[in-house]
Structure formats: structure tokens, C-alpha cells
Automatic annotation (TrEMBL):
Entry-linked InterPro entries: NagB/RpiA_transferase-like, Ribose5P_isomerase_type_A
EC number, as in UniProt: 5.3.1.6
Similarity field: Belongs to the ribose 5-phosphate isomerase family.
Associated pathway: Carbohydrate degradation; pentose phosphate pathway; D-ribose 5-phosphate from D-ribulose 5-phosphate (non-oxidative stage): step 1/1
Name of the molecule in the record: Ribose-5-phosphate isomerase
Keyword Transferase applies: no
Organism: Ordospora colligata OC4
Entry GO MF terms: ribose-5-phosphate isomerase activity
Coiled coil, from the record: none
Top EC class for this record: isomerase
GO BP terms in the entry: D-ribose metabolic process; pentose-phosphate shunt, non-oxidative branch
GO cellular component: cytosol
Length: 201
């Protein structure tokens, strides 16, 4: 898998890097020939530790390549992401990229997303109203919390995350609700999917 990733990186000048345990494994092989745009503090720290040049989407209107992992994927390379709490920044960098490579483990494949939960990033002051709307839609949800702190998990942008039972109609319309920043459903836009099988390439 390392060799395949390096082939995609070759010749690229600006590369976006996602967040999570999958992508973290590959940061150590990244060459110092490019500028990297990280999607989270944890990725920034790891890139910095490796002495790589770091930039931001504020500086680069277009990014050559985006590399990330995923929480779930289907046969059309649609994704559910956001376990690491960086879904909005990931989607911004992904949308600015000419090419996106997604690294996924085979056990994360889903024939359908029915029964999965999709993260919704919500501005804190709008939380009660949005939870009420979700409840009235008859959808299950979990306000994401961390056992190591009191209160909700906060995203990279300082918002809350509500994990909502997958419902395509709700996902397609939820950003019309005032206070919803973004959702973690990534509709495939020519994503290149690289699947790790049984810890092998």
C-alpha cells in the first residue's frame, strides 16, 4: 500500500491530509517534496513532528491531492466520515482537491448505509432545537460525548457532533436547518478507493 500511495503523491506540490488512525499510519512515509494541508490539530502535530512543510486551505485555493481514510464506504465509493471530529475541515479540503484517494479497511464496507449513523456538526446554541427536529423525524441519534471530559465532544471548529441514524432524505436536507454546519456523508466525486484487506495491501 505504501508504494501505491507514493505513486499518487509523486509530482504533487500541495497535498491535503485527513484525520484518523488509518491516515496516521501513512504520514511517516510522506516525502518532504510537497506542502501539506492538514484537516486537524492531531494531523498537524504529526506532520510537524516529521519535519514536513505545513500550510492551510486559506492559502491554497486548489489542492493537488487529498488523502484520507473513512469510517464506512459502499460499492460506489460513497463515504461516511467524521469519527475524528474533523468532518467539516475534511470536506472543505476534499472539495478543493483535484483528486481524492481514500484508504479503507475491507471490514468498513457496507452494502447499504442502513443502520449506520452519520455525524452532523451542530453549532452549540442550536442544539436543543436540532435535537427536537431529529426526534420528530423519528430518527435515532446520539449526542457524542467523551468519557474523559464532561459534556459533548467538540469538533475542530468548536461545535458539537450529533450522530444521526442514516436517512438519505434527512442528510440531503439537514443543512437547510439553521445551526447545522455540515454532515459526514461524502458523496463520491470520482474518489479513488484503496481497500486494505486482512492487514495486507
Amino acid at each position: 500500500m505504501d508504494t501505491k500511495i507514493l505513486k499518487f503523491i509523486q509530482g504533487k506540490k500541495v497535498i491535503g491530509i485527513g484525520t484518523g488512525t488509518t491516515i496516521s499510519k501513512y504520514i511517516n512515509i510522506l516525502p518532504n517534496t510537497a506542502v501539506y494541508v492538514p484537516s486537524s490539530i492531531s494531523t498537524t502535530l504529526q506532520l510537524s513532528k516529521n519535519g514536513l512543510t505545513i500550510s492551510t486551505a486559506l492559502v491554497h485555493e486548489q489542492i493537488d491531492l487529498y488523502i484520507d481514510g473513512t469510517d464506512y464506504f459502499d460499492s460506489n465509493a460513497n463515504l461516511i466520515k467524521g469519527l475524528g471530529g474533523a468532518l467539516t475541515k475534511e470536506k472543505i479540503i476534499c472539495s478543493a482537491s483535484k483528486q481524492t484517494v481514500i484508504i479503507a479497511q475491507s471490514y468498513k464496507y457496507r452494502q447499504t448505509f442502513d443502520g449506520c449513523f452519520v455525524p452532523i456538526e451542530v453549532i452549540p446554541m442550536s442544539l436543543p432545537r436540532i435535537l427536537s427536529i431529529i426526534s420528530k423525524r423519528g430518527l435515532g441519534y446520539i449526542l457524542r460525548e467523551d468519557s474523559r471530559k464532561i459534556g459533548p465532544v467538540m469538533t475542530e471548529l468548536g461545535n458539537c457532533i450529533v450522530d444521526v441514524e442514516y436517512d438519505k432524505e434527512f442528510i440531503d436536507s439537514c443543512k437547510n436547518i439553521c445551526g447545522v454546519v455540515e454532515h459526514g456523508f461524502f458523496e463520491s466525486n470520482g474518489f479513488i478507493l484503496m481497500v486494505e484487506k486482512d492487514n495486507c495491501e
